[in-house]
Design a protein that fits this description.
This protein is α/β, with parallel strands linked by helices and 405 residues long. It has 2 domains: 188 residues, Periplasmic binding protein-like II (D-Maltodextrin-Binding Protein, domain 2, 3-Layer(aba) Sandwich), CATH 3.40.190.10; 172 residues, D-Maltodextrin-Binding Protein, domain 2, CATH 3.40.190. Helix content is 44%, strand content 14%. Helix 3 links the parallel strand 1 and strand 2. The longest helix is centred in the C-terminal third of the chain and has 36 residues.
C-alpha cells in the first residue's frame, strides 16, 4: 500500500512539473553565464513602470520568477507612474535601484547630470538581438548607457459608444461637449507635448512664449477634464467612466482587449514616438547582476513573452520574429511609415525650460475651475495677441538686420 501511495505522489509531482510554464532552462539559455551568482544571496532592485512586465497572469511567463530560478538572484520589483517621479526619487537619494527603465528624454537628462553608469556590454551579449536602428539613438548618442526595452506612440483612446464622430485631432480633447468625460496625462512633459503639437509647435519647444500659450490652452482645458491620470486610466477607460484620453499605444491594446468599445487614433497634427530603455543608475550596488538582468530581458524567448503580455512594440529583432503575424501586423503596435512621418522624439530640455514647464504645470493644476470658465475667452484672445506680437517683432528685427546689412 505504501508503495502505491508513493507511486501516486510521484506521479502527481511529475504532472505538476509538466503543468508549469516553460522554465528558463527549457528555453535553452546559457546556464554557465546565468549561474555565476547562484548561492551568493544577491538581490537587485528593479524600478519600472506600472503594468509593464509579464508577471505570470493569464498563463504568461513570470519574467522575474524565471530570472530568480535561473540565476539565484532575488528581484525586488517596484513601480513608478511618471518619469518625473523616477527622477525625483533618484535625485533625492530616497532609494537605491540597480535597474531603472525611464523614457528617452529622461535618459538623456540623466546622462547629462551623471546619474547613470556606463554599461559593460561584455556582460550583455544578448544585446545583439536588438534591431540596429534602436541602438543608434538621439537620447543616448554613443549607446553607452541604455539598452532599448520598448517603443511606441502616443494617441487618443476613445469609447465608440460615447463618441460618434471621427477622432483624428488633439482638438477633441478640448471639446466642451465632452466635459467631465476627458482624461489627461498627469505629467507635464506629455501634457505640454500634446498641447504644443495641437498648436502647431514642436513638442520639444524651448520658446517661452510658445510654452506660455500652451499653458493657457491647458488651463482652458481644465474645466473639461474629469481627472489627470497615469495608471488609473486602465480602470476608467475599461469601465466606461470616460469617453476620451491620450495615452500610449501599447496600453491602448490592453484596454481594447478588456473593452471592445474602445478604439485608438493617431492625431493628424502629429505625436510623440517614444523609447523606454533599461539603464543602471549611479546608486547601483550590484552592477554585474544588473547587467545579467538586462541580458535576460534581451533573450529572444523572454523578450517575446514579455512583449506579448504588455502589448508595446519591441525593438528586439529576435523577439519580433517569434511573434504571431497578427501582432507583427497590428497597426497600433507597428504603424506604417505614413503614420510615423509626423512624429517627434522627446529630447532633454535645458534646465531653465524644465523649471518653466514645472512652474506652469503647477499653475495649471492649482488654477480654480470656476475662474477659468469665464476667463477662457480672455485667455484665448491674449494668446492670439501674444502670437501676433511675436511675429511682428520678429519681422521688425529682421527688417532692421537687413537695413544694417
Amino acid at each position: 500500500m505504501k508503495r502505491i501511495i508513493a507511486l501516486l505522489v510521484a506521479l502527481v509531482a511529475c504532472f505538476s512539473l509538466l503543468c508549469l510554464p516553460a522554465s528558463a532552462n527549457e528555453l535553452g539559455l546559457d546556464e554557465s553565464y546565468y549561474s555565476r551568482f547562484k548561492d551568493q544571496d544577491i538581490s537587485i532592485n528593479v524600478y519600472n513602470w506600472g503594468e509593464y512586465i509579464s508577471d505570470g497572469s493569464d498563463d504568461t511567463m513570470d519574467v522575474n520568477a524565471e530570472f530568480e530560478e535561473l540565476t539565484g538572484i532575488t528581484v525586488n520589483y517596484s513601480t513608478f507612474a511618471t518619469n518625473e517621479e523616477l527622477y525625483d526619487k533618484l535625485k533625492s537619494g530616497g532609494a537605491d535601484y540597480d535597474i531603472i527603465i525611464p523614457s528617452d528624454y529622461m535618459i538623456s537628462r540623466m546622462i547629462q547630470e551623471g546619474m547613470l553608469l556606463p554599461l559593460d556590454f561584455e556582460n550583455i551579449p544578448a544585446v545583439e538581438n536588438i534591431f540596429p536602428q534602436y541602438l543608434d539613438t538621439n537620447y543616448d548618442p554613443e549607446g553607452a548607457y541604455s539598452v532599448p526595452y520598448t517603443w511606441g506612440t502616443v494617441g487618443i483612446i476613445y469609447n465608440t459608444a460615447m463618441v460618434d464622430e471621427v477622432v483624428d485631432s488633439w482638438q477633441i480633447l478640448w471639446d466642451d461637449k465632452y466635459t467631465n468625460n476627458v482624461l489627461m496625462f498627469s505629467n507635464p512633459r506629455d501634457a505640454f507635448g500634446i498641447t504644443l503639437k495641437k498648436l502647431g509647435y514642436s513638442l520639444n519647444s524651448t520658446d517661452e512664449l510658445e510654452l506660455r500659450v500652451a499653458a493657457e490652452e491647458l488651463k482652458m482645458q481644465k474645466p473639461i477634464v474629469q481627472a489627470y491620470v497615469m495608471d488609473e486610466i486602465f480602470d476608467k477607460m475599461q469601465g466606461g467612466e470616460a469617453a476620451l484620453a491620450p495615452y500610449y499605444a501599447g496600453d491602448a491594446l490592453t484596454m481594447i482587449d478588456a473593452n471592445p468599445d474602445l478604439a485608438f487614433a493617431t492625431p493628424k497634427e502629429g505625436t510623440n514616438i517614444f523609447y523606454d530603455a533599461m539603464c543602471i543608475p549611479y546608486s547601483c550596488q550590484q552592477k554585474e547582476a544588473a547587467e545579467m538582468y538586462i541580458n535576460f530581458m534581451c533573450e529572444a524567448e523572454v523578450a517575446a513573452a514579455n512583449i506579448e503580455y504588455i502589448g508595446y512594440s519591441t525593438p528586439n529583432q529576435a523577439a519580433f520574429e517569434l511573434l504571431d503575424e497578427e501582432i507583427r501586423t497590428n497597426p497600433i503596435s507597428y504603424p506604417d511609415d505614413e503614420l510615423l512621418v509626423n512624429t517627434e522624439e522627446y529630447v532633454a530640455l535645458p534646465g531653465e525650460t524644465n523649471l518653466l514647464m514645472d512652474s506652469l504645470w503647477t499653475e495649471i493644476l492649482t488654477t480654480d475651475d470656476q475662474f477659468l470658465t469665464w476667463l477662457m475667452p480672455v485667455m484665448l484672445i491674449a494668446g492670439c495677441v501674444a502670437s501676433v506680437v511675436k511675429i511682428v517683432a520678429r519681422k521688425r528685427r529682421r527688417a532692421r538686420e537687413m537695413a544694417d546689412y
